[in-house]
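Handoff note, outgoing to incoming analyst
You'll be picking up this chain. Sequence as last confirmed:
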Amino acid sequence: MAGPERIEWRPSALSEAFAKLGWYLAGAAVTIASVWVLFGSEPARLHSGQLNPLAVTPRVALIVGVLGAVPPFLELARRPLVAASSYGMTVRAGSWRTVVLPWARVAAVAVYRVGDDEYLFLACRDAPTRSRSVGTAGDRPGWPDRGELRTALKRARRQGSGQPEALERFDLAVRMRDFVGEPYVLLSTLVAFAPDHVQVATDLTEAD
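Most recent structure output, in case you need it:
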């Protein structure tokens, strides 16, 4: 019997994202209120007639607080994404860009436990010259896409094992507790679409 043409991991509950946003809003509200209490009564000009820089401090604090709320709001609106088809993979590791990777660009797929979390790791290979010319090379993961990878590497280095060296060959990482399902099972759904050249590795077992 033929399988599905495309699979997409189901995101987990929004409770963690709401909690993060709530803590930020509470902290920002306390900070902004404190700044207004301290500097809200400052005159616009000093006795010398010059502009008083302290007078604009409350407005600056408000602007910074609003801008700082953008990332946690984005985490609610744009959840992490992992999908696969016979063409390739679609991955959004954080809340910013969605990366499309044809299987021709994927060198390895792995799931490893780092600390108390499991991560999906992806290693990419350079696109063929012909693929670049016809626009089918897919996306190249950039610095903003690698936030979870940097987090996983930092956690691995704190453990003091040889794991960081094994993880440095990867280009993307996705935290798997952001999705519903056991990590080993989720990996299996991707492997079903992966062609033979894609290396698959994990330190998990079905019992995990």
